[in-house]
Amino acid sequence: MDMIQVVGFGLVATVLVLIVKEQKAPVAFLLAAFAGIVIFLALIGKISEIIAMLERLADQSNVNMVFFQTILKIIGIAYIAEFGAQVVRDAGQEAIASKIELAGKVLIMVLAIPIISVIVETVMKLMPA
């Protein structure tokens, strides 16, 4: 799906949501969530291409694949948390959206701790005793 198609689909979905929202707000929310999921699914092919390209680059540069996979997980958590928070925010639940973002940040920090530990250990080895 090209960018013009994504924007066109988004605009049509927005108009439909605005029309339906006056009569049945829950249906409008479901329509908005469905539109978001369709756009996300349309981008999965592109995301797969990006991940494959990054894996090739990491393999060529001899980057430890454990760290590379951890970074991909962190990026995935960030995108999923953002998407989930926006869907919940569209439903008017700002407090829950904030909690989803907080959970995403905590999970990212948990995944980043081993990488941060290795960086700190490397720096400590480089410093004179």
UniProtKB/TrEMBL annotation:
Give any Pfam family that matches.
SpoIIIAC
Q: Which UniProt keywords apply?
A: Membrane, Transmembrane, Transmembrane helix
Against InterPro entries, the record matches this protein to: Spore_III_AC/AD, Spore_III_AD
Kindly list the residue ranges recorded as spanning the membrane.
27-45, 66-86, 106-124
Whether Isomerase counts among this entry's keywords is no
> What name does this protein carry?
Stage III sporulation protein AD
Species of origin? Paenibacillus antri
Question: Mind giving the lineage of the organism this protein is from?
Answer: Bacteria, Bacillati, Bacillota, Bacilli, Bacillales
Tell me the name of the encoding gene.
spoIIIAD
